[in-house]
Amino acid sequence: WGEGMEDASSAFLLRDYDEVIDQRFNAKMLSDSASYVTKRASVQLLSTVLLTRSNYAVMMKYISSRRNLITVMFLLRDPSPHITLDAFHVFKVFVANPDKPPEVVKILVDNKEKLVRYLDGLHRDREVGDEQFRDEKALVIATLEGLEL
């Protein structure tokens, strides 16, 4: 992809944000009828979109939403370890945001103890061989522990 294509896709995502994010991604990720493949592909694509530099404005809009945070927190509880790992990569962006809106902070603070306990046990087996994951998880936990209203 060239820079022009990234700019065009970012402009499209911003212009059609509600349809693409709410009606496509969130609906597919939360649907009980969605297949594992659909759900996993949706979370992976969302993670890629949010972490692509040219989509910064899209990422900021996404992580400023209370509803999106709740969606990702539900995905963290999915029975599939692959989906929970992909959801973690989206969740960490919410936590790392230095300008969290008050409604996002409130959800994180209200659920802090449960989130820290859950994240502490998340993919323990992966920590041994994946230093980046271990470090990111520790940073997310430390950031959550430091959050206050």
UniProtKB/TrEMBL annotation:
Listed GO biological process terms: intracellular signal transduction
Molecular function as annotated in GO: protein serine/threonine kinase activator activity
Domain of life: Eukaryota
InterPro entries in the record: ARM-like, ARM-type_fold, Mo25
Similarity comment: family membership: Belongs to the Mo25 family.
Name of protein: Protein Mo25
Organism: Trieres chinensis
